[in-house]
């Protein structure tokens, strides 16, 4: 892919790995003829917001479900847990209608809000909190912290490693998400990068040098993230296996 | 230990227990509400919507069982079920074997093992849209790299995505390639849980590597195997990932040979605006999903998550 992105139109279908006349024209084309930068910023904005909001809400809920005692806790956890099996495609149609009724079609809110909520994050964080020693929290209570204080000053700092792992995981998943953004955005200004390259393919059918340049642009951030945060990513997947 | 704590709490009007309830409610509220609105409500809607005729932006009329009746005489839907089942079986079996094999391989002490682990995992990081595009490029009729290489070694290329006979298999292969790294990591985690002493003891008794696998690795890896089977089945039937690939690579063609259930439902809803019919088919897909999960439980004799 990367090698083809540097090839000219007449060389793009040849097998040689190193382009004989490497060129940046394809990239120039992608960024100037198409608002690719805008699509990337859309993806960056949506993925970052979803990740931050999701981790914040999930860690709050997980803390309460793991540590606080209140009536109906187990029922509530079971209800949340049971949504783990619900995959987006299954509820795509009703979710679309709901979001339309809420007036969130073609908006950042529509891209972001429904993507925040998933039981997976709550579940993993709760498991993590269940295994944490109680003493530190008790000490904080003695020092006069309320529940929010304990969450903010004790729980969050202690969960930094797992939050980092989940953050990489969530960010990648949202950067790469396609079906939901495809479904609810008509307005091209709101397109996320994956939707943009898929439309690029229809528009430039056969112009593989442009398509591969676009694909490279969309993939480079994820590969960079992978090489930098490899360990966190692998950790988050390992923990997801230990149900 | 908590005497000081309860004193602090009694100082205000509420007693400690009620304060704890209030705090819990506030902590759980955002997620609970969000899940209820964006997962719970659509789930209920999905079941109800199938009984209505919903057209475009507005019109809605009660349709009774019409949508459900239509389903079973719609040859395209029946075809899409066949495609779904073929896809799931191929994908689940393939990804299981390949990722377990890779995990066993990269667990060995061979040179550059870290590099190989990364390489096997790398596809999973790139989006399926990009993956689909790149594979489509490499498989292009006549000029794609894959065919050029095959011809160079004398096997002869074929129309991978243009021939109904091969298109689905090609999509299954790309899916496996995409997911193998993910499940490899999960298998690796499972393998690392197995105490080394078992192997050492068996080796002293003269066990060969096949026997080690058969009598130690395989039985002790059961919970992990079950997890992988379950998750890959759900992934396969729900078709979220397959959807991206199919949308980019084949658009359901040629001759509907890759039109997975989920892709057909998407078309009915968002290209033909027949939301009611799409919802009815979704409900059916949920049943299929439950059936597949139940079958898996029976086949693996309960799966035994808890033996970990």
TrEMBL record, chain A:
Sequence intervals crossing the membrane: 39-63, 75-99, 105-125, 207-229
Domain ABC transmembrane type-1, chain residue ranges per copy: 40-229
One Pfam family hit: BPD_transp_1
Subcellular location per the Swiss-Prot or TrEMBL entry: Cell membrane
One BP term from GO: transmembrane transport
Protein origin, superkingdom: Bacteria
Cellular component terms per the entry's GO annotation: plasma membrane
Key words of the record: Cell membrane, Membrane, Transmembrane, Transmembrane helix, Transport
Cited InterPro entries: MetI-like, MetI-like_sf
Membrane-protein topology: Multi-pass membrane protein
Family under the similarity heading: Belongs to the binding-protein-dependent transport system permease family.
Name listed for the protein in its UniProt record: ABC transporter permease subunit
TrEMBL record, chain B:
Mode of membrane association: Multi-pass membrane protein
Residue ranges occupied by any ABC transmembrane type-1 domain in the UniProt entry: 81-296
Keywords from the UniProt entry: Cell membrane, Membrane, Transmembrane, Transmembrane helix, Transport
InterPro entries: ABC_transporter_permease (IPR051393), MetI-like (IPR000515), MetI-like_sf (IPR035906)
Cell compartments where the protein resides: Cell membrane
Transmembrane helix found in the keyword field: yes
A Pfam family that the UniProt record links to this protein: BPD_transp_1
CDD domains: TM_PBP2
Main localization (coarse): membrane
Protein name, as recorded: ABC transporter permease subunit
Family to which the UniProt record says this protein belongs: Belongs to the binding-protein-dependent transport system permease family.
Transmembrane segments: 21-52, 85-106, 118-138, 166-189, 226-249, 275-299
GO biological process: transmembrane transport
SUPFAM superfamilies xrefs: MetI-like
Organism, as annotated: Rubrobacter tropicus
Listed GO CC annotations: plasma membrane
């Amino acid at each position: 892919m990367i090698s083809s992105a540097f090839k000219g139109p007449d060389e793009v279908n040849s097998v040689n790995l190193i382009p004989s006349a490497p060129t940046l024209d394809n990239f120039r084309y992608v960024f100037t003829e198409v608002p690719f930068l805008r699509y990337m910023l859309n993806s960056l904005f949506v993925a970052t917001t979803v990740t931050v909001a999701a981790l914040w809400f999930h860690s709050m809920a997980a803390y309460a479900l793991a540590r606080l005692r209140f009536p109906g806790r187990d029922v509530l956890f079971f209800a949340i847990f049971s949504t783990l099996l619900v995959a987006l495609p299954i509820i795509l149609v009703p979710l679309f209608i709901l979001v339309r009724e809420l007036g969130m079609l073609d908006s950042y809110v529509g891209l972001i809000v429904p993507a925040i909520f998933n039981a997976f994050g709550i579940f993993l964080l709760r498991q993590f909190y269940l295994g944490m020693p109680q003493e530190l929290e008790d000490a904080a209570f003695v020092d006069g912290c309320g529940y929010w204080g304990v969450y903010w000053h004790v729980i969050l700092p202690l969960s930094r490693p797992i939050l980092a792992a989940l953050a990489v995981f969530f960010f990648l998943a949202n950067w790469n998400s396609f079906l939901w953004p495809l479904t609810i955005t008509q307005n091209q200004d709101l397109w996320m990068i994956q939707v943009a390259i898929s439309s690029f393919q229809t528009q430039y059918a056969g112009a593989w040098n442009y398509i591969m340049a676009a694909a490279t642009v969309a993939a480079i951030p994820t590969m960079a993230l992978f090489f930098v945060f490899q360990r966190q990513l692998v950790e988050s997947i390992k923990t997801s296996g230990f149900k | 230990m908590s005497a000081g704590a309860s004193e602090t709490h009694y100082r205000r009007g509420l007693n400690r227990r009620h304060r704890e309830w209030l705090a819990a409610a506030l902590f759980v509220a955002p997620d609970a509400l969000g899940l209820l609105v964006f997962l719970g409500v659509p789930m209920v809607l999905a079941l109800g919507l199938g009984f209505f005729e919903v057209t475009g932006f507005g019109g809605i009329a009660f349709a009774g069982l019409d949508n459900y009746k239509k389903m079973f005489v719609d040859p395209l839907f029946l075809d899409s079920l066949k495609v779904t089942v073929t896809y799931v079986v191929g994908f689940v079996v393939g990804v299981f074997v390949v990722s377990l094999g890779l995990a066993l391989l990269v667990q060995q002490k061979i040179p550059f093992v870290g590099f190989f682990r990364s390489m096997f995992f790398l596809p999973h990081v790139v989006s399926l849209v990009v993956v689909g595009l790149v594979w489509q490029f490499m498989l292009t009729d006549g000029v794609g790299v894959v065919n050029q290489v095959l011809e160079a070694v004398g096997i002869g290329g074929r129309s991978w995505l243009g021939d109904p006979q091969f298109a689905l298999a090609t999509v299954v292969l790309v899916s496996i390639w995409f997911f193998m790294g993910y499940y490899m990591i999960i298998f690796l985690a499972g393998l690392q849980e197995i105490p080394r002493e078992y192997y050492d003891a068996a080796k002293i008794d003269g066990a060969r590597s096949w026997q080690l696998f058969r009598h130690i690795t395989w039985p002790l890896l059961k919970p992990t195997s079950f997890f992988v089977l379950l998750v890959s089945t759900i992934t396969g039937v729900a078709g979220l990932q397959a959807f991206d690939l199919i949308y980019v690579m084949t658009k359901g063609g040629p001759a509907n040979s890759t039109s997975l259930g989920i892709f057909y439902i998407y078309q009915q809803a968002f290209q033909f605006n027949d939301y009611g019919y799409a919802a009815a088919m979704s409900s059916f897909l949920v049943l299929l999903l439950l059936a597949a999960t139940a079958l898996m439980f029976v086949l693996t004799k309960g799966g035994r998550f808890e033996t970990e």
